[in-house]
Amino acid sequence: MASIERTAYPRLKRMVSARELHDAFTPMVDEVGWARERTRSPQHLLALVVLLKTYHRLGCYRS
């Protein structure tokens, strides 16, 4: 059986270290700028950046 990371339906790990969180979810300046252009409130900005970084982390898109 293939590991969960190699399946068609990737998942986030249950336990993630602080270092992994920092490396995977700290947004780059251009990502924040892109998201800021598409949102009207700080709450929506945060939500969009979190979704974008999650999308990257799951391997759906690589920047």
Verbal overview:
The chain is mostly helical. It has a domain at 16-57. Helix content is 54%, strand content 0%. The protein has helices at residues 18-25, 29-38, 42-57. The chain is elongated. The model has no long low-confidence stretch (mean pLDDT 86).
Explain briefly what this protein structure is.
Helices cover 54% and strands 0% of the residues. With 63 residues, it is mostly helical. The model has no long low-confidence stretch (mean pLDDT 86).
Query: What is the radius of gyration?
Result: 13 Å
Mean pLDDT: 86
Order of helices and strands: HHH
Beta-strand residue fraction: under 5%
**N- and C-termini, Cα separation:** 30 Å
Based on Cα principal axes, name the global outline. Answer: elongated
Q: What's the main sheet like?
A: none
Low-pLDDT residue spans? none
Total number of helices? 3
Q: Name the helicity range.
A: 40-55%
Task: Give the tally of β-strands.
Answer: 0
Structural category: mainly alpha
Which helices and strands appear, and what pairs or packs with what?
Layout: H1 18-25, H2 29-38, H3 42-57
Features:
single chain; mainly alpha; 63 residues
